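Record type: monomer structure entry
Structure origin: computed from sequence
Chain ID: A
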Amino acid sequence: MASQRASEKVDLIPWDPVDEDHYQRMYSQRVACGWREDEVALWKEEVLAGHVFFYWIEKEPLKDTVKIVGKEPRRRSGRTFVPIGHISLRHIPDLNTQFSLPQDTIWIKSLYVSWALQAGGFGRSAMAQLERLAAAPPYNASVVALDTIRRDYHLSEEHLRWLYDRRGLERPKRHVSTQDWYASQGYEQIPNSAVSFYENKAEDGSVQRLPVVFLSKKLPANGLRSWPPEFPSLTTNGSLRLSID
């Protein structure tokens, strides 16, 4: 099944927070993800201000309606698409300073792929394409960074119960922490970055404290030219077409 999915084509298409269908689909996916659905309204404001850049991982269809990404105009295609997840880029200058990262560092946030399609290669391919996007104008980043749940907690019984059991999902036979998953793609823990905690409110009102670590990865020094030729280029409408590994 995974190999069949891996041969499909998907796009990264900008999220349009002012379109009601886009907005509601983002909210629904955050509910399915299990946390931060209460931040979607804030994300809308941040996207419109040009501080955050959300992309659908696309596969009921939506329409491509975005006319501007950040401050850059974009020709929208108007075609329909089916989002199977989302991912975002965010400028966080304070963290760049705190961790002594280059000021052009951009942060990858909020990666989500539909539970039914996880382990099919979609997340890894979306990451590769977002890195390519981050290295290109208008972002021109030399480093990408992210935070993720700490390895030992991710593999703990407490977290596995929260991640799978409470949703009625079957636990995978082989569970890999997101920290190790990112490490397999070249991400390294940022030196001297202390573990932080994010708070997540469960449906019953209880609060879960999630320990997170900070990771980063250097992008090719000469940008897109150093990427393997099999990677596609930016399309004229500002989206990326990618093949799933």
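Annotation 1: Residues 128 and 210 are 26 Å apart (CA to CA).
Annotation 2: The radius of gyration is 18 Å.
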